[in-house]
Amino acid sequence: MLNGTEYDLPEEGGVKTLHELSLAWGADCELQAVTHPGGLPMLRMRLRQGRRFTDVELTEEMALEMAQWLQAWARAKGG
Fold first, then answer.
1. Residue 50, CA distances (Å) to 19, 25, 44, 57, 79 in order
2. Which of 23, 42, 45, 63 could serve as 27's disulfide partner, Cβ 3.0–4.6 Å?
């Protein structure tokens, strides 16, 4: 749940866009809920810059750890 919104997972083998972000230097990030065959849920971060893109897929545990590090960095920078 984020900002009172609960996110449903897509069916097995499906992808659902959760959020899109504009990043620095003309890059974009799309956050997607992905359910792989066998039912494994992942959070995909699709980073795009021009014609290039990189997919990073995270388990729930990895996403929570990354969120903690991002939050700690932002707070240390005065956010």
1. 19, 10, 19, 21, 29
2. 23
Query: Going by DSSP bridges, is the β-strand pair 14-22/52-58 parallel, antiparallel, or unpaired?
Result: unpaired
In angstroms, the Cα distances linking 9 to 1, 27, 28, 70 are 12, 26, 22, 24
User: Which residues make beta-bridge pairs with 57?
Assistant: 44
Judge if pTM exceeds 0.85.
Answer: no
Contacts made by residues 26-32, CB under 8 angstroms, sequence distance 24+: 26/50
Give me the amino acid identity at 68: Q
Tens-of-pLDDT digits for all 79 residues of the chain? 454 555 676 777 789 999 999 999 999 999 999 998 888 899 999 999 999 999 999 999 999 999 999 999 999 977 6
Token match 């069916």: residue?
Answer: 11
